[in-house]
């Protein structure tokens, strides 16, 4: 009986490892599909409270959605501007430090 239990445990571990490998491979191959879908789901989840708040204030749904999209766009634009600014600062510091004139 102990041998059967060890075989069962080894089989379970092997099947779990195989499932993890298949899952990771599938996610890697489907990266072009999954990344945009997950990003869209994240943005929708984060944006829902804005739309919900506007709807509670009796703002019509199309206008609430439009305002939410504009807020999302403004936020993402701000993040991009900050990243570009910080990247430019890092580039100049990097060149000054590692490639002195």
Key traits:
101 residues, mainly alpha, 3 helices
How would you explain this protein's 3D organization?
By secondary structure, this protein is mainly alpha-helical. The chain has one domain (2-98). The chain is built from three helices and no strands. Helix 2 (31-56) packs across helix 3 (61-98). The longest helix has 38 residues, at 61-98. The model has no long low-confidence stretch (mean pLDDT 91).
Short description:
With 101 residues, this protein is mostly helical. The protein has helices spanning 2-29, 31-56, 61-98.
- Percentage of residues in DSSP E strands: under 5%
* Residue windows where pLDDT falls under 50 for at least 5 positions: none
Number of domains: 1
- How many distinct helices? 3
Largest sheet: none
Strand element count = 0
Helix-strand category: mainly alpha
Which word captures the global form?
flat
Query: Mean pLDDT, as a whole number?
Result: 91
The span between the termini is 76 Å
- List the helices and strands in order: HHH
Task: Set down the secondary structure blueprint.
Elements: H1 2-29, H2 31-56, H3 61-98
Helix pairs in contact: 2-3
């Amino acid at each position: 009986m102990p041998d059967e239990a060890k075989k069962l445990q080894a089989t379970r571990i092997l099947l779990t490892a195989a499932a993890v490998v298949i899952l990771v491979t599938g996610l890697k191959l489907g990266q072009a599909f999954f990344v945009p879908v997950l990003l869209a789901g994240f943005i929708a989840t984060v944006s829902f409270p804005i739309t919900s708040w506007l709807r509670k204030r009796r703002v019509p749904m199309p206008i609430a959605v439009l305002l939410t999209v504009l807020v999302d766009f403004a936020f993402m634009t701000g993040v991009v501007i900050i990243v570009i600014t910080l990247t430019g600062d890092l580039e100049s510091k990097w060149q000054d430090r590692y490639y002195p004139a």
